Fold this sequence. Notes:
The protein is of the alpha/beta class. The protein has five helices and nine strands, in the order αββααβαββββαββ. The mean pLDDT is 96. The site of adenosine monophosphate has 19 residues, from strand 2, strand 7 and helix 5.
Amino acid sequence: MDIEKLILDRIRDVNDYPKPGIVFKDITPLLADQAAFTHVVDAIVAHYGRGAVDKVAGIEARGFILAAPVAYHFGVGLVPIRKKGKLPWQTYEKSYDLEYGTETIEIHRDAFRPGERVLIVDDVLATGGTAQAAAELVRQGGGDIVGLSVLMELAFLDGRARLGNLDIHALVTV
Ligand code: AMP
């Protein structure tokens, strides 16, 4: 089965969540399907290739779910990028606009060794604000970004435009 169909068939559109006008992409049916989940994780790892990444950075919260098995299969460590106030040690922080509100995210200052090659992972690329902020945090922390991997890119929101020449790997684009 092709991966796009595998993913699209298992992402549920929830209208007007969390706010009127937003169509929320619910990935829980995909996560609950062992074959689909495995396929997605393998596709991300295969795209970049083992040996190409030193750390995987997952964006809270759904990004963590994907980033953890991806890091495991790369054989590398995981770095959480979290909502403000959740990380216990010294952090860098960045605020940005969301498709539905504003947000501040943080990363530990000692998350990377200088020049480590970092793959950022999240579920959905929408307006690109989250990914842009995450990329700035990774760079601030001394990481060298290999790319951004997402399950789904919402092309009509043109998040890509905010991300400069960042390599964006979207398994599905709608
Ligand atoms: P953005 O910063 O606009 O690119 O939004 C991306 C972040 O918000 C990701 O962490 C997504 O999990 C979440 N997000 C934004 N829009 C949606 C959506 N329509 N469905 C599901 N998650 C979304």
